[in-house]
Specification:
The complex is a heterodimer of chains A (about 325) and B (about 250).
Chain A: E1 2-15, E2 18-32, E3 37-41, H1 48-55, E4 63-68, E5 71-72, H2 77-83, E6 84-87, H3 99-109, H4 114-127, H5 143-155, E7 161-165, H6 173-190, E8 193-198, H7 201-207, E9 210-215, E10 218-223, H8 225-231, E11 235-241, H9 247-257, E12 265-267, E13 270-275, H10 278-291, E14 296-302, H11 306-314
Parallel strand pairs in A: 3-8, 3-9, 6-7, 7-8
Antiparallel strand pairs in A: 1-2, 1-4, 4-5, 9-10, 11-13, 11-14, 12-13
Helix pairs in contact in A: 3-4, 9-10
Chain B: H1 2-19, H2 22-39, H3 47-50, H4 55-73, H5 75-85, H6 87-92, H7 98-126, H8 133-161, H9 164-181, H10 193-200, H11 203-215, H12 221-248
Helix pairs in contact in B: 1-7, 2-7, 4-7, 4-8, 4-11, 5-8, 7-8, 7-12, 8-9, 8-11, 8-12, 11-12
Classes of the chains: A alpha/beta (about 325), B mainly alpha (about 250).
The complex binds adenosine-5'-triphosphate and magnesium ion.
Chain lengths: ~325, ~250
């Protein structure tokens, strides 16, 4: 569905007298199969939107090439546009227009008849729980309703592939979870390929078949959420000792289980470290500690999250700078 | 056909939003009326120098071009607001022709200008302006082309600068010489020869002259042709520029 090789986008910007060149996207290769939901994950300014704008023909790549839905973005842009839907990060509806009119006009620009666009629009309105909003002005809608309206606009012409640029930013957790259901339904019911950017880990994790991580304009990883997480060496284990004097004993026992190079951290009563297959290793650890007369207050074992993955891949936490 | 249909969809959307704004409708209608009633009388003492029998025969054509140019110069400001709402990007991601995205907007500006022209000419007629019908028709057509050129240029400028703060001074810089050197308000023939020579380099002066002569029923080549050619040339150039910005617009 999408195949990109060596995509580059540079922006020239001027700060005072100094001209600087920003390499917003720096040699991106992407492959997305038909019917996949792919999460495009990266911190602010990583180049997600810029990549999307190149794939949707809004921005001509500085270098590199891409085929989207079987057409070349540079030379067959009209065919690409016909096949895809795009929901931009910033929304797409005029603030004083009426929601329904905007949807119909948008559909008609894709060549649908007015009646067709109206019918499909009303279907989508009820599907996305926007009943009764047809004649409202977008500026009077809540943030979540407006975001769903943007998505309706992007789906009006039944595209085979949709690009969603941070569709859930600014929504409350319930509305986000709700939108996830809508997005999975797109694929499950219609076989639509979905390319969705986000900087929420849980979102990429919950929604995507595959995750592509971008940082500083470069792809740093592309795999299933499971595989990405298993790349991180092990699960994190946090042991709390009852007697602070026994912490070194616990640290020594935990250290014996961690991989070389991974450090065990002692923080007051807490001893933390990463061990592979914690589920099978921890019972043995507990038995040894009991034999050594160590009393534990609590134990916590956590599977790695995508944040851990990002930290391992880039040395920075995804949440930094948010 | 596809092109016309797409332009029409964009035009209809623009018109719908404008009509919903009563200020737009009222200002559009009253602008020509105010100019005629408040500025026209000032020209009465100059009838002799102007070489016309009624001051409105001189004034209405100039007013037409002025409305055409200056109203249209501001068309781009609305486009900046639309760009900020994400509407431009949403339209650009559809397969619609880029020229249609511009044309639909121009049609809206031209319709507004056409209605204003009718008000202006109708009211001018009541006030004593006299002109042959074909002169009026040609004059209005030239005005529409000139207005279309300015609106297209204004849209192009809007998408290039994307900022009202940058655009406003640019428009002022362009408008000043146009207003002063085009003989819109008073004929350049009233001024000293150096001023007349300077104004010869101003395409708008030839456009104003063409419209004015056509209202006078004087269709000879050197009176109407050059101004008309200028008008058409500027129109084509501006539409080309506008289309290019819709095609390339870089975030
Ligand atoms: N039109 C532009 N001109 C100059 N620089 C730009 C332009 N658009 C983007 N950039 C720069 O390119 C880099 C990547 O921006 P981009 O919008 O692709 O990031 P993003 O991953 O979408 O971030 P976010 O999560 O904040 O949306 C940023 O450093 C940004 O400042
Ligand atoms: Mg972005």
């Amino acid at each position: 569905m999408i195949r990109a090789r060596g995509l580059v986008q540079t922006f020239k910007s001027r700060q005072g007298r100094e001209k600087t060149e920003v390499r917003a996207v720096d040699g991106v290769d992407l492959d997305v199969a038909e019917g996949e939901i792919v999460g495009f994950l990266g911190p602010n300014g990583a180049g997600k939107t810029t990549t999307l704008r190149m794939l949707t023909t809004l921005l001509r790549p500085t270098a590199g090439e891409a085929t989207v839905a079987g057409y070349d973005v540079a030379t067959q842009s009209k065919d690409v546009r016909r096949a895809i839907g795009y929901v931009s990060q910033s929304g797409a509806t005029g603030s004083v227009a009426r929601a329904g009119d905007e949807v119909i006009d948008h559909g008609m620009l894709y060549g649908m008849s007015q009646a067709e666009a109206r019918q499909r629009g009303q279907e989508l309105f009820s599907q996305f729980e926007l009943d009764g909003m047809w004649t409202r002005q977008p500026k009077t809608l809540s943030g979540g309703q407006r975001r769903r309206l943007d998505i309706v606009m992007g789906l009006i012409h039944v595209p085979r592939l949709v690009f969603l640029d941070e569709p859930t930013t600014g929504l409350d957790p319930q509305a986000r979870a709700n939108l996830w259901t809508h997005i999975s339904n797109l694929r499950d019911q219609r076989g639509t390929t979905v390319f969705i950017t986000t900087h929420y880990l849980d979102e990429a994790d919950a929604l995507s078949d595959r995750i592509i991580v971008i940082d500083h304009g470069k792809i740093v990883a592309a795999d299933t959420p499971e595989n990405l997480k298993s790349q991180v060496a092990g699960d994190s284990v946090d042991l709390e000792v009852a007697d602070i004097a026994q912490a070194p004993v616990v640290a020594k026992a935990l250290d014996a289980l961690t991989e070389d190079g991974d450090r065990v951290v002692v923080d007051g009563r807490h001893v933390r470290g990463r061990i592979r297959r914690a589920g099978t290793a921890v019972p043995g650890l507990l038995r040894d500690l009991t034999q050594a007369d160590v009393e534990l207050n609590s134990i916590e074992v956590r599977r790695p999250t995508l944040d851990d993955v990002f930290l391992a891949l880039t040395g920075r936490s995804l949440r930094e700078g948010e | 056909m596809r092109f016309l249909r797409e332009s029409y969809i964009v035009f209809r959307r623009q018109l719908r939003m404008n009509l919903r704004n009563p200020a737009w409708v009222l200002i559009g209608a009253f602008q020509p009326v105010l100019y005629l009633l408040l500025f026209g009388p000032l020209l009465k003492p100059l009838i002799g120098a102007l070489g016309v029998e009624n001051e409105y025969t001189f004034f209405v054509p100039g007013m037409l071009v002025q409305l055409g140019l200056f109203g249209a110069f501001f068309a781009g400001f609305g486009l900046i607001a639309e760009w900020r709402d994400g509407v431009v990007e949403a339209e650009r991601v559809t397969p619609a022709s880029r020229t249609a995205l511009l044309m639909g907007r121009l049609w809206r500006d031209l319709l507004q200008l056409f209605v204003q022209a009718l008000i202006l000419v109708g009211l001018g007629y009541l006030l004593g302006m006299r002109a042959p019908l074909r002169g009026i028709v040609l004059g209005i057509v030239l005005t529409l082309l000139a207005g279309g050129a300015c609106a297209a240029a204004s849209n192009a400028l809007a998408l290039t600068t994307k900022s009202e703060d940058v655009m406003a001074p640019v428009i002022n810089v362009v408008m000043m010489p146009v207003l002063l050197l085009s003989g819109i308000l008073l004929p350049m023939s009233l001024g000293p020869s150096w001023l007349q020579t300077a104004s010869d380099y101003m395409p708008v002066k030839h456009m104003v002259n063409a419209v004015r002569n056509s209202f006078l029923g004087d269709f000879t080549v050197d009176k109407v042709l050059w101004g008309s050619l200028w008008t058409v040339a500027l129109f084509v150039l501006a539409v080309w520029w506008g289309t290019r910005t819709f095609r390339k617009e870089n975030a």
